[in-house]
Every structure is written in structure tokens, then in C-alpha cells.
Design goal:
two-stranded parallel ribbon; 14 strands; 6-stranded parallel sheet
């Protein structure tokens, strides 16, 4: 967001449109069911679940706008971003509410400048659908030598106070009397190897694990140190975000955070959730995964109050390593895990954050019975091993322009978890 956008006056048309959407959101947020859902998220996150929880994230929004309810009508870029946020919230509630919580607030990011870590990814992109932001990536290697590692730097992160004040004033002008304005700071995560494979490339990194291990360890050390130095700066200057409702793709509601001594003006890492993952290590052994990740992500996780670990990588055979990490509360169980083994390994010590296969929504034919079998396998395995569980459908690249598939998945999943 730039200063020009922040300082541009809002037209009466844009303001009235946003206030009308805000009225609808505020009415939904006032429903008692949201407090019930928050209580269920808190119970799950304390490992004392009332029932399994359900979320849907990373949807193909371009395929879902069947009757124009997602079509943006504001003209100002700032207003359009907020309009998109509000319309998506209303769409979720109407068609696939699952355990999504609608809150009587609007979150506006502070204008924070970040110079980066010294590299930006260079890539060749392949797309099957020009409207879809899910594309293929071929990354160009920028880190072939030790000298290139030395170019990784600590970012300069600064608050643009003037632009932030302008944005905040705009938001208050639009939403006062309807929704609370929450100015949001930085949400730091560390997907160490997911970053490095974008700067080098996946094939080179996998070869380096065997051929140049010291080179990779130096790379990981350098980037971890840079992230931790940035985290120090964010804490010192009050640039971290405050209260969290969501962490990565899951409900973050908990009575265990923030930590004692919390200052809303200067949130600390220990007041927050963080996330970490190493999806490229899907194809390496548990021992190698631990050698090249544990020393680095442990330092990051130690700083935070709670951790969501993993993403698409199969982790059912790596729980022994995960247990060595501090503050992990939820573990991603992707479509490629052995569900029974994963539930047995996690037991009651972590939340089994199941990622059902989005491929079931992408085929030529829609088969709700296959979805039910897939979900039931997870629910049954977690029940056998007394393992808290959530169902997080995400990475949905397509529903073949049939949004009803997604609506039916949501209805089916909620019927199953409610018993």
C-alpha cells in the first residue's frame, strides 16, 4: 500500500457500499453461535476437544462467483481490498460457514516497509487457467556458491507512521458505529527450506543434502539468524500483530495466549502462534529431515507461545522429531500420510490437523460418498487413539467451476463432526 492510495479521499459511493456490507457482517457477528464456535476452538487448542473442528481455506475464488456476490464494485483500490475481504466473509457464511468465526471488526494492515532478505525468487511460471493464481513454478538458482550465501541479509523493517495513520483514519470514517477497526501488525512465520528452494531450486537443494551438506547448513544458519534478528526488531518496535483469530489455516482462539505481561502496544513472539514447515523434505528420511531442520526451527519456535507445524509434507513417520520441537500444538497431516499411523503417533499430545485431499473436488465427477469415506477414515482413527482432530480443507486449486461441490463438502463435514 502506498501513500497515494492511503491519502486519496473516499467517494460517497464507495463508503456507502462498504457500510452496507459492514452492516451485514456486524449482524452475523452478533449471532451467539460464534461464541459457541470460539469455545470449541479453545477446547481443541487446549487438547480437550468438544468435537472435531472444520475449516476451509485457500479456495479458487475466481470459480465461486456464480451470481455476482463476489464481484467488486468499489473504485478506490483501498476500498476494493476491504470490499473483497467483506464479500468473502459473507460468502463463507452463506455457503460454507463450517467453523469460521465472523467477528465484529475489520482488520487493516499497518503500512510496514520491508527491504527483504537480499533475494527475491526468480522463476518461470506455467498456468493452466489464467484466472487461477495456483500455477507451476520453475525456480532459477541464485545461490550456487558460498559467496552468494553471504548476500542473505537482515531486512530493514519500518513502520510508515504517516501512511498508517491515513489508512486508519479512512477505516474509522467508513466503519465507525458498525465494526471495530483493528490495525494489524506483522505475522512472522518461518518456512526455512521453502524459502531456500525458491532462491536456489528444489533439485539443487536435494542434491546438496548428499553432496554439499556443509553448504546447506551454512545457508540455513544464515537465513535463520536473519529471521531471528528481524524478530528482535519487530518486538522492540511494536510491529508484531496482536490478538490472533487464525494461525496459518486454523483457529487460533485460546485462553493460553497472550502470555503474562502482555502489552497490546508491544506484542511479543511469546504472545502469538507461529508456523513452520519444510515441504521439500517430503522426499528425505526422518534422520536427514531432523539434521537439516531441527537446529534451526527449534530456535524460532522457542520464541513463540504456540506452534502450528507442517503443511503438505507427510509427517506421520516424523513425529519423533516433532516432539523435540518446543511449543508445537498442532501437526499438519497431509493427504499423503498413513492416517492410522499418524493418529497413533500423535495420540493426545497434539492436534491432528488433517488436510483432506482437495483432489476429490477436482475430478470429472463429484462423488460425495468418496468424500465421506475419506473423512470417516480420519475421524475413526483419531477416535481410536484419543487424538484431537480438525479437518482443514485447503489448497483447492479447482472445483471445476462448480461451487456447489465445495458447499456440499462443507455441509457433509459439519454433519459428520456434529454426530
Amino acid at each position: 500500500m502506498n501513500n497515494t492510495t492511503a491519502s486519496t479521499p473516499i467517494s460517497p459511493t464507495d463508503r456507502n457500499l462498504l457500510r452496507e456490507l459492514a452492516r451485514k457482517v456486524a449482524a452475523i457477528a452478533a449471532l451467539p453461535i460464534h461464541q459457541e464456535t470460539i469455545a470449541c476452538w479453545k477446547a481443541l487448542n487446549s487438547l480437550k476437544p468438544i468435537r472435531p473442528m472444520v475449516m476451509i481455506d485457500q479456495m479458487p475464488w475466481h470459480e465461486l462467483d456464480g451470481d455476482g456476490e463476489l464481484t467488486l464494485r468499489c473504485e478506490d483500490p483501498f476500498c476494493r481490498r476491504i470490499e473483497n475481504q467483506l464479500r468473502q466473509a459473507l460468502y463463507r457464511w452463506k455457503h460454507l460457514p463450517v467453523d469460521y468465526v465472523i467477528e465484529a471488526e475489520i482488520r487493516i494492515p499497518k503500512v510496514i516497509r520491508n527491504t527483504g532478505f537480499g533475494y527475491e525468487r526468480k522463476e518461470v511460471v506455467a498456468a493452466l487457467d489464467v484466472r487461477n493464481d495456483v500455477v507451476g513454478h520453475a525456480y532459477i538458482d541464485q545461490l550456487p556458491t558460498d559467496a552468494d550465501i553471504d548476500k542473505i541479509r537482515v531486512p530493514e523493517v519500518t513502520l510508515d507512521a504517516a501512511a498508517t495513520a491515513q489508512v486508519e483514519a479512512k477505516a474509522h470514517d467508513i466503519f465507525d458505529g458498525l465494526l471495530a477497526v483493528q490495525m494489524d501488525g506483522y505475522t512472522p512465520t518461518l518456512a526455512l527450506w521453502d524459502i531456500l528452494v525458491q532462491w536456489r531450486n528444489p533439485e539443487a537443494v536435494l542434491y546438496d543434502l548428499a553432496d554439499r551438506p556443509e553448504f546447506l547448513l551454512k545457508m540455513a544458519q544464515r537465513l535463520t539468524d536473519a529471521h531471528l534478528a528481524m524478530l528482535d526488531h519487530l518486538e522492540q518496535h511494536g510491529l508484531l500483530g496482536g490478538r490472533q483469530s487464525w494461525a496459518h489455516c486454523t483457529g487460533a482462539f485460546t485462553d493460553e495466549l497472550p502470555a503474562p505481561g502482555y502489552d497490546p502496544q508491544h506484542p511479543r513472539a511469546r504472545d502469538r502462534w507461529t508456523c513452520g514447515m519444510s515441504q521439500i523434505f517430503s522426499s528425505v528420511s526422518p534422520a536427514m529431515h531432523e539434521e537439516f531442520e531441527l537446529p534451526f526451527l527449534s530456535r524460532w519456535f522457542e520464541r513463540f507461545g504456540m506452534v502450528y507445524y507442517g503443511c503438505c509434507e507427510p509427517l506421520d513417520d516424523k513425529v519423533a522429531m516433532i516432539r523435540k520441537y518446543p511449543h508445537v500444538r498442532k501437526v499438519s497431516m497431509s493427504p499423503w500420510v498413513n492416517v492410522e499411523h499418524g493418529a497413533e503417533q500423535l495420540g493426545g499430545d497434539f492436534v491432528f490437523s488433517r488436510k483432506p485431499s482437495p483432489a476429490l473436488l477436482a475430478g470429472d465427477d463429484w462423488n460425495p460418498q468418496a468424500v465421506q469415506r475419506d473423512l470417516q477414515e480420519t475421524l475413526d482413527a483419531c477416535a481410536r487413539h484419543s487424538c484431537p482432530v480438525e479437518l482443514i480443507l485447503k489448497d483447492i486449486s479447482t472445483v471445476r467451476y462448480q461451487p456447489q461441490r465445495l458447499w456440499e463438502w462443507a455441509e457433509l463435514a459439519m454433519r459428520m463432526v456434529r454426530g
